[in-house]
Amino acid sequence: MKALAILLTSLMLAAWISAIAILAIQNFSPVTLQLLGFQSIAMPVGVVLAFSVALGLLGTAIAQPLLGISSFQREDDEDY
Questions:
Q1: 42: Cβ–Cβ under 8 A, 6 or more apart, which residues?
Q2: pLDDT tens, 36-72?
Q3: Residue 76 lies in a domain
Q4: pTM of this prediction?
Q5: Which domain holds residue 19?
């Protein structure tokens, strides 16, 4: 059961990376971001998407231990 979970996680990660790569190639036009009056430099859409995904993953990895959220909870030890 654990091998299936690892396989599905790997497939989902590969799909996200592929989707970002395809969008980055198709949408090479530069965009600028504006937040609270500040404006970023012009970057391709794919770079913005990659940074957004990376910040989301990093934020989730930091927030889970701080909030005490566990992604895996054992109910019984028979599966392991």
A1: 30, 31, 32
A2: 888 888 888 777 877 888 898 898 888 888 887 766 6
A3: no
A4: 0.55
A5: 2-67
